[in-house]
Amino acid sequence: MVVGEVAVETDVVVIGGGPGGYTAAIRLGQLGKSVVLIEKDTLGGVCLNRGCIPSKALIHTAGYYHKLADFAKMGIRLPADNVSFDLRTWQNWKEEIVMQLNKGIGHLCKENGVTVVKGHAIFLSDDRVGVETDGAFETYKFEQAIIATGSRPSIPSFLKVDGANILDSTAALELREVPSSLSIIGGGYIGIELGMAFAKLGCQVTIIEMAERILPQVAGNVAKEVARKAKKLGIAIKTATQVEQVTVDDDRVHLRVYSEKHGSEMIVSEKTLVTIGRVPNTQGIGLEQAGVMIDERGYISVDVECRTNVRHIFAIGDVTLGPALAHRASKQGVVAAEVIGGLPSAMDSPFVPYVIFSDPQVAGVGLTREEAERQGRNVKVGQFPFRANGRALATDEPDGFVEVIVDAESHVLLGMHVVGADASNLIGEGVLALELAARVEDLALTIHPHPTLTEGWLEAAEAALGHAIHVVNKLV
């Protein structure tokens, strides 16, 4: 490669075009900054191209297909032997969605004056970035930089993802045929989401989790609802179980696993999916040349303004400590851009919601009961089951509940959690309530429309106060 002698000058370089990176670039453009956005692959990052959007498209499709069996009780008759699912056709539909969103991001970048460069970026110093693109090498001189390089799947050294038998989440979402059997190493949100989707499409799924239960990052009563539904789908769940050896023989994957309860076992499946976490993409981008420090796990420490130890270099998204969530990265992108633009902005809210697109869906914000009690707080808990909600019954979605965690003295809402249909949309009310430091009375006095799932929040709030209408009032 030939190193260019003249550096292109710009106000800000953004490295990484995922949700955090392109959001930062667009906001910087709005603030009048000259911006170069460098992305080595495709705008939208893993989330849009190989993660969030494709997986939710698969989950949505699998949900529709699985529900066909329930149509008869509603009076809908379908030919019993004439219903099928074609994963190849689904792939075409998914690609159309991704392409449409890709074009949208590109258009927004263009309209906001963002220069998009495709290539691999590496810091040459604390004010220069080199980009290798199409066999050439270009240099950009910047006043500020934002690192938004995201993360990648964490794969144990004894496993080799080959894309044929042993898969990561990207390879799983590129399959052209539904496997007859699938073993999943990791019972966190990615493993559960994809496992339930493939199970609904007729695949025999086994989930192996080292922790004592699946979804160890959420409250136990919430995870229990998902585990119950998973078993109804025929998914075999092996918790407190460790994978000891993986071999591929005769186009089948053989997993030797061990647990104290069952000893050594052999699990044989057509394919194995590895979903045990993600690691930050902070290697190979020249952070040492820029003087940016990382911790022993590769994460970059930032302050509330998203500044690294080098004050004019910022970091956002999965390369920073905290939950690897696209909406967190986007918020950090806005904060970093506004700080660079001279506006007062900070990542100072503890209320980052999470959503798991399992069946039933799971979402939450703020403290769980266990977390609040570990902090020494005296709490009240209000809960309302969807089986007592008219809308949930009318749409054949009775599983799950909503729950509010309340400070017993001040009545301030500490956390709001939901497991059930459309939890991903229901949690928005919870985020706003906690951001506004609402008391449980604020929720209980707010008129909610009927018949809707949102009435669950009203009933849960009233339950915490001891006067719920549609359930018997009792301490939870």
TrEMBL record:
Determine the domain of life of the protein's source.
Bacteria
* Cofactor note as given: Binds 1 FAD per subunit.
Q: Which cofactor does it need?
A: FAD
Keyword NAD among UniProt keywords: yes
EC class, as a word, reads oxidoreductase
Q: Name one GO molecular function term.
A: dihydrolipoyl dehydrogenase (NADH) activity
Query: Which NCBIfam families has this protein been placed in?
Result: lipoamide_DH (TIGR01350)
Extra facts? The active site is a redox-active disulfide bond.
Q: Which family does it belong to?
A: Belongs to the class-I pyridine nucleotide-disulfide oxidoreductase family.
Name-wise, this protein is Dihydrolipoyl dehydrogenase
What organism is the protein native to? Aneurinibacillus thermoaerophilus
